[in-house]
């Protein structure tokens, strides 16, 4: 069914029920290179949530959570970055690791999100803080205008996209800049969303939400979201509970989201959602 939800997006939901119509691709590994190894750079215990993005100037920027003392989600972290400034693949072309954010000794620190690169070479990282245990959470962006060589200060966008009592956990994955109409040039991130975190209704108010910017990341707005069903109620096995997700723009300008299906809605499949006006 087609469902109209709050915001500016119209979403079309469909379920993958079978793998019989798969596209048979044949990817192969041309060269392997380890970007991060635990107990390597900074004596970090674990590197998690690795994300790499490429821009039209040929630069690749890779970002990950550097979990300082444990592999746990709830822990103190850095945001780690490595970059390759040109399009010639070479192990020697990667920069050393730099840490662009440091949450100190936080028991529930930064939560990496998603990364995107724009056509003009800007790289934007979206991440949150204290998203597992705190009654109030915050969402930030960090931006580089030189292919990840230098980074600006974190910008708090929490109040632009819902406030401290709402969680937006980007991705994990990458955001996009739209290449086609409608809204060519728009920046979009999607992620897991909860409108009543760490209350008695925490598990009842989750879903998937997208945020967007029409001024190259200066200001952000909330788009529509995909609520869990039944919304506002405890979820049981086989209820609709979308969560971590990835979006892509199709050639007709529509947006396709593929999301985890946490408790097996219609079976052990992923869920697809499509917007025609994003």
Automatic annotation (TrEMBL):
Topology in the lipid bilayer: Peripheral membrane protein
What biological process terms from GO does the record include? Answer: ganglioside catabolic process; oligosaccharide catabolic process
Family as reported in the entry's similarity comment: Belongs to the glycosyl hydrolase 33 family.
Q: What does this protein do?
A: Catalyzes the removal of sialic acid (N-acetylneuraminic acid) moieties from glycoproteins and glycolipids. To be active, it is strictly dependent on its presence in the multienzyme complex. Appears to have a preference for alpha 2-3 and alpha 2-6 sialyl linkage.
What Pfam families does the annotation carry? BNR_2
Q: Where is the Sialidase domain?
A: 90-275
Q: Which organism is it from?
A: Oscarella lobularis
Q: What is this protein called?
A: Sialidase-1
InterPro entries to which the protein is assigned, alphabetical: Sialidase (IPR011040), Sialidase_fam (IPR026856), Sialidase_sf (IPR036278)
The alphabetized UniProt keywords are: Cell membrane, Cytoplasmic vesicle, Glycoprotein, Hydrolase, Lipid metabolism, Lysosome, Membrane, Phosphoprotein, Repeat, Signal
Localization, per the record, is: Cell membrane; Cytoplasmic vesicle; Lysosome lumen; Lysosome membrane
According to the record's subunit comment, the protein's assembly and interactions are: Interacts with cathepsin A (protective protein), beta-galactosidase and N-acetylgalactosamine-6-sulfate sulfatase in a multienzyme complex.
Further comment found in the protein's record: The sequence shown here is derived from an EMBL/GenBank/DDBJ third party annotation (TPA) entry.
An example Gene Ontology CC term for this record: plasma membrane
GO molecular function ontology, one term from the record:
exo-alpha-sialidase activity
- Which segment of the chain is annotated as a signal peptide? 1-21
- Lineage of the native species? Eukaryota, Metazoa, Porifera, Homoscleromorpha, Homosclerophorida
């Amino acid at each position: 069914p087609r469902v109209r939800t709050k915001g500016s997006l119209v979403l079309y939901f469909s379920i993958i029920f079978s793998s019989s119509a798969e596209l048979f691709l044949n990817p192969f590994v041309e060269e392997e290179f380890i970007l991060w190894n635990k107990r390597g750079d900074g004596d970090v215990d674990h590197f998690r949530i690795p994300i790499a993005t490429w821009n039209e100037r040929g630069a690749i920027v890779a970002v990950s959570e550097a979990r300082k003392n444990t592999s746990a989600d709830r822990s103190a972290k850095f945001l780690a970055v490595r970059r390759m400034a040109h399009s010639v693949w070479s192990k020697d072309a990667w920069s050393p690791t730099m840490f662009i954010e440091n949450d100190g000794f936080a028991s529930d620190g930064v939560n990496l999100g998603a990364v995107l690169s724009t056509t003009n070479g800007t790289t934007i990282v979206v991440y949150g803080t204290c998203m597992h245990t705190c009654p109030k959470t915050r969402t930030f962006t960090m931006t580089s205008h030189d292919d990840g060589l230098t980074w600006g200060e974190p910008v708090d966008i929490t109040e632009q996209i819902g406030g401290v009592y709402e969680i937006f956990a980007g991705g994990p994955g990458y955001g996009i800049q739209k290449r086609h109409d409608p809204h060519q040039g728009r920046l979009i991130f999607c992620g897991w969303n909860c409108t009543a975190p760490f209350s008695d209704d925490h598990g009842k108010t989750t879903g998937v939400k997208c945020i967007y910017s029409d001024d190259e990341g200066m200001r952000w707005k909330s788009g529509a979201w995909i609520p869990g069903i039944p919304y506002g109620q405890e979820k049981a096995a086989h209820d609709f509970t979308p969560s971590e997700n990835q979006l892509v723009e199709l050639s007709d300008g529509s947006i396709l989201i593929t999301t985890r299906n946490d408790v097996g809605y219609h079976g052990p499949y992923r869920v697809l959602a499509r917007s025609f006006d994003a």
